[in-house]
Design goal:
Blueprint: H1 13-21, H2 30-43, E1 50-54, E2 60-61, H3 75-84, E3 88-91, H4 95-100, E4 112-114, E5 125-127, H5 130-142, E6 146-151, H6 153-158, E7 173-178, H7 193-196, E8 199-201, E9 205-209, E10 230-233, E11 236-239, H8 248-252, E12 258-262, H9 266-275
Parallel strand pairs: 1-8, 2-12
Antiparallel strand pairs: 1-6, 3-4, 3-5, 4-7, 6-7, 9-12, 10-11
Length: 281
Amino acid sequence: MAGKDKKEEKVPLGIKMLGFAIPRNPEKDRIYTKVLTKTLMGSVIKKDDVYFAVPKDNVIRVDASLEHKNAFLPSKLIHHFIDAASHHAIAKYCGCRTKMDCSNHPKKYGCLLLGEGVVDGNNMLRHVSKEEAHQYAEEVRKNGLVHTIGRTFADTAVFRLPKGVGEYHKKFMIICNCCPCCCLARMYPYGSQSFRDILLRMPGVDVEINDNCVGCGTCVESGVCMFGAIRIENGRARRTEDCVACGRCAEVCPHGAVEITIDESAVGDAVKHLSSIVDVT
């Protein structure tokens, strides 16, 4: 785990504004969290906005008999859009980790932004090449972070993209690199239903608890599921309807009791859905 970054630039205003709104303890501040997320839905999050949680490749069980089985791994979704994008930029800071003063992951691992919409973004962004974007995505996964990919109108406000209310909202995709200790997704279990509806399980991904489960509780410890979507009931782990298949529970389970599988069509289906709302070319 990495400690505080040795050298940090001045935190941009947009990050400070984002951090101000995020509750430090969404579970304790449930009423505020619900009111905040309901307000967000009516102002800076639009009805067709969506994010997919992207499980890590190492937790996916792919049929070994499949030819080109690596083509079905979730990370292919991330790298497909990096390849397709006309422009690439990286946020200099993660607003969530900056707000929480994270000591588990570097604050420098900000969001990866794709598409024409990032061309005139504010000074929170540094523009990179396609090759650098690919390397960056691999680097943050190695650091233990989980991708979510999609688009919300709120992101155009944070990065102060010009014409954010118009076409740029349709030409701007964001890949967040989330940690369970700080991420905005911590509000998910306590947010309004409309807020929870924008964060979805990647199509074609399924999660099952098998008979290896002994109810040890490792999967429900603090810092595992940022979505609060797994619990122990009657001596056995059980997923709730809030599960978006991020794969964190499968990664820490000492008994191999959490099985995550992916359909052959999963990556293609996710590409089709996201491409229908965002054009990154």
